[in-house]
Amino acid sequence: MSSDKIRIAVVGATGAFGMKHLDGLANIADAEVTVVSGTRPEPTEAVAQAYGVPTAVVGYEAVLERDDVDAVILATPTGMHASQTQAALAAGKHVQVEIPLADSLVDAQATLAAAEASDRVAMVGHTRRFNPSHQWVHNKIAAGEFNIQQMDVQTYFFRRTNSNAKGEPRSWTDHLLWHHAAHTVDLFAYQAGTIVQANAVQGPIHPTLGIAMDMSIQLRADSGAICTLSLSFNNDGPFGTFFRYIGDTGTYIARYDDLVNGKEEPIDVSQVAVSMNGIELQDREFVAAIREGREPNSSLRRVIDCYRVLGELEEQLA
After folding, report:
1. What is the DSSP annotation of 111-145?
2. Comparing C-alpha atoms, which of 55, 64, 59 is closest to residue 89?
3. Contact at 8 Å (CB) between 262 and 270?
4. For the chain, how long is the longest CA-to-CA vector?
5. Is 30 helix (H, G, I), strand (E, B) or coil?
6. What is the mean pLDDT of the chain?
7. Which residues does 151 contact at the CB level (< 8 Å), separation at least 6?
8. pLDDT of 43-88, one tens digit each?
């Protein structure tokens, strides 16, 4: 094992996002995946073999006690994120936790406090900060060439059962507010400024899942820009989130890593970063921040305001 590489454990490696991280990490020379962790032995072993990872373990404690792990990436159920992030920091590991950091403001604040008391790198997988499409827009804003007037965002899935991004059964219930809205709330603040007003309404609660299947959110930033976000688990159509940036000098539509203008003409974003894969770029930032001993772009401190807004919206909806 090469000691100059950042040795990483991917926790929740058998899920859809665990594998996306393994795919991204495979392209990062400074990273070495030494351990994968899952909840069942056979699928975890299969993932280890498929990705050439030397060690597969069951459970999280088995990861934190290892001395061949410098950092963990948590691709685990939302309800575990806060406690598992705190446990990683307590064990002296750097940690990247998938979005959302927590499913309550209290837990998000407690996890931030743990991160600030630690000397480890702690970041959240707010992937939209890293997608080349959104980076391209961010660079234009930073250069003073574009100012957002409105963001119009649609987050649409068809999800009547507990299933993951691969369509496989999952043990936990996803959430429109604390998971899917988190992407847009953070991105809007990142692109337009601190959110100073937020409103939300939601549709009926699903009788078995126990969550709202439809939601509408309005945001206003201190810059005066507004955001309209529609979320649904009822939409029978293409999965995903589609962002329309309406600005003073143009209109841009981002679909994950791809970007077009308001007339649907493609914009080349291939030179924005070293990869066209937002998850890989997110992982590169994590590894680079550890290597350089610096705060990453989506550190807990930098994204905590997103969870303040989500907490305010939850109070409204209650």
Report:
1. HHHHHHTSSS-EEEE-GGGTSHHHHHHHHHHHTTS
2. 64
3. no
4. 54
5. coil
6. 94
7. 184, 187, 188, 191, 192, 225, 226, 227, 228, 243, 244, 245, 246
8. 999 999 999 999 999 999 999 999 999 999 999 999 999 999 999 9
